[in-house]
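Model it.
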Amino acid sequence: MINICFVDYFGLKTNGINTYREILLMSLQNYSTIHLSVIFLKASDVKIIKKEKMGSIDYYFIEHDIASTLHSKYDLKIVEFLKKQFGNKKNLIFHFNWVNHGKFAQLVRKHINCRTVLTNHCVPWRNLISTNYYQFKKIEWFLFQKKSSKYLDNNIIKEVVAYNSFDKIIAVTNLAKRSLIYLCGIPENKIKVIYNGIPNIEEYITDKYKLRMKHGFREDEILILFAGAVTGRKGIQELIESVTGLMKNNTHIRLVIAGDGNFNEILPMVKSNWSAITFTGNLDRQTLREFYQMADIGVIPSYVEQCSFTALEMMAFKLPLIASEVDGLSEIIPESCALKIPLINGESSCYIDTKMLSNHIMAYIDSKQTRMDYSDRAFLHVSNYFSSKKMVCETRKIYESIYHDDYLSHREYECSKDDYPAALITVIIPCYNGRQYLKEAIESVLNQSYSNFELLIVNDGSTDDSLEVIKDFSDRRIKVINNKMNLGIVKALNIGISNAGGEYIARLDADDMMHKDRLRKQMQFLQKNKDIDIVGSYHYIVDENGCIISIKEYPISNTEIKFMLFFQNPFSHPSVMFRAHIIKEFPYSSEYKHIEDYILWCNILKTYKGANIPECLTYYRVHQKNVSKEFQNSQRENVGILLLTMLEKLRISPSPNELKIHLAIANNYGRMYFNDRQKIDLLSKWIDKVVGIANQTLNYSISVEKNIKKYLFDTFLR
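Modeled.
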């Protein structure tokens, strides 16, 4: 039995997600191997939580909105309630439909044994087409070039964080899948494209002219139907402009706008055509289907659209369609099934060709045969490729595969806990009074997909019950070194290194966590790249509850890392894995307090090479007792001293303005500091100067030096 909890908002009027939910639940409840529950959010008529059973489906009504970041206590309260309801259920899956529910999905996974699925109904960054066209085109270009998110500053960072919160993602178009892979860095095996589908509509067919009589429309009117939200991104203004232009010479045209939204901008456009334009507001599903049958022409002039249910339903009801050539619409509607309107890309905005839209409308009005040809082909297309039966079947396979994939992954990498070979990797966790998060840190190591390791915990004179937390684990791979007094992290790490038996040594802090594949991926990387001796990775930034709140990226190649050393720390310390003989040759130093890792990289990289894997393999926790928070001023001061020492070795004496620039870079201020043309120009000149002089020692080619300057400039402006 698979237990599915479908999460959506309560009381939403007809929209795509509402349609998706109704179709999915109606079909899934017929499977004896699936038990369904629905969690409705923002249910205003309930006090906190209410449960009802309707047929075979359990419904939970919650007044809270889990997308809010301001009421974490309510989130935890809801999770505790859900744990009581579902905590003992096996094969439990929470199916989310809103990307901004990612943080709550993490909380659910943390407290309940379950998996999470997201159906990605929209691609949020594409909404920039109407709010920040320049940024939209920039991101679109990177997508075309298949570049990763590290080139995009922080413009899609919220999307990246949210998508990483789910175990599986259902994309409703291939465009969305490409965006997830190439912009957000989501592994391809985590994504499945399942197009939306609609049920057989024969049972809803009614005589067209009887429906017109029912709703007060004349038989001789040409009804042009728009169905959707009344917003600028839907092209509603362009549609009104085109249709009202035609109405001057065609008095039998009527435009029907079915949907809610902001009417303030479009009402002045109606002017003298009030009697020929009908605003219905939001329609219930049955009435909307009747409008599909009454209409003569359907128009979808959107700037942004994915796998539109409106388009599918219009085609299914044989409504001749005019659609803009944008992302999802281009993918689901072939040229033979609709008259297309291209988007015209201008310098500062893109726009719909209203003249072409008018011509397409007239082409349908003037020729009944043209209408029939397009509508017949569209009907066959949607019947063959977009059935609800196929959508439901593919979704059910996703549910079934999640736990099956977990089993295969476990079998592929785990060996018997009674027969561990000699450890290839030593994981070192130094711990001083770290009991609050220590259990999670240890569990993240023990649950690695690669199991041939020893976990060496250096309990550095803790006065809390950290040792008791460690003793609660019975895994034979755990080894503990107890310092009688607190010696500090540098000595604790060096003690751990001197006692490490593995060929590779991996770091982790007592308040951080590992991704389950971290050790395997880094070990395989070092085995494949014999010239690399230290490898780190990107890391997730998580809050006190372990929920991802951001992502930190680092330079990838050895070249980038060596130049970055002169400006910023190029590694995430808890994410690093060394070849053991290297770190034993270069032990940690206390010369620069609280930045022992930075000085270590400086020493190692004089002789050896480093790299970062461009994946988040560690979860770096931000909380009030972080060393980086507790000793922030001291840390920044020592970084400044170290960087000045490095510049002196290059024989660079920075001016006061250059020093400000350098410290702004070191502290990762980005656009907060480099916020005007003068500072940006100074940044560019300073990078040119430092990199140019540094390269006299590093001796890379002119082309490499040029690329490095651009890479650093783009990075520091984030």
